[in-house]
Amino acid sequence: MNADQFHMIAEKLFNELPAKFRRLMQNVVIVTEDFASAEVLASMQIESAYDLLGLYEGVPLTERQIAESGSVPDLIHLYREPILAMQAESGESISACIRNVMVHEIGHHFGFSDAQMHAIEQESKP
């Protein structure tokens, strides 16, 4: 799957989120890239670029102050190659894989920690 197709699926999935969530994400941009940069990987002490599927960059809603309104948009990075590798390994559809990563990163936008997101993901598994 090429980068344009991947980005179009990510945008479609974002636009399919319930309106009540999208309203709270008006200043959030979805960015799709092949891999995280070397700087991001180093700062997170991640050795393999395949180990980072997505990243939230911004100030979670739970930590915002009024003075921060009008600031630069928050970013949700989706890393195409690691997500495609995860999809090949899991056998899930590419849409399901992108959605899972996107929802995880959106959780960070709403102020959830990785541990909280992991617990939510475990609870929602069939």
Describe the structure.
- The chain has 126 residues and is an alpha+beta fold.
- The chain is 49% helix and 13% strand.
- It contains six helices and three strands.
- It has helices at 3-15, 19-23, 38-43, 80-90, 94-109, 114-124, and strands at 28-33, 54-57, 74-79.
- The protein has a three-stranded mixed β-sheet.
- Helix 1 (3-15) packs across helix 5.
- It is globular and about 40 Å long.
- The two termini are 28 Å apart.
- The model has no long low-confidence stretch (mean pLDDT 87).
Structure, briefly:
The chain is an alpha+beta fold.
Based on CA atoms alone, the radius of gyration comes out at: 15 Å
- Spatial strand sequence of the major β-sheet: 1-3-2
Given helix and strand content, the structural type is: alpha+beta
Q: Ends: how far apart? A: 28 Å
User: How would you sum up the major sheet?
Assistant: 3 strands, mixed
Uncertain spans: none
**Helix run count:** 6
Helix-strand sequence: HHEHEEHHH
Query: Beta-strand percentage?
Result: 5-15%
**What is the 3D shape?**
globular
Mean residue pLDDT: 87
Helix content: 40-55%
Number of beta strands = 3
Features:
alpha+beta, three-stranded mixed beta sheet, 6 helices, 3 strands, 49% helix
Summarize the topology:
Blueprint: H1 3-15, H2 19-23, E1 28-33, H3 38-43, E2 54-57, E3 74-79, H4 80-90, H5 94-109, H6 114-124
Parallel strand pairs: 1-3
Antiparallel strand pairs: 2-3
Helix pairs in contact: 1-5, 4-5
